[in-house]
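Morning run. Coffee first, then this:
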Amino acid sequence: NWIGRSEGVEITFKVADSEETLTVYILQNNSPWL
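And here it is:
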């Protein structure tokens, strides 16, 4: 259990055919979504 500051990107995706969203937090910038 690591506690402390982390830097990354938070991305919110819309779920198709829904009002729902999905938020993910990515620590590495080599993700295919960036």
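The chain is about 0% helix and 35% strand. Good start to the day.
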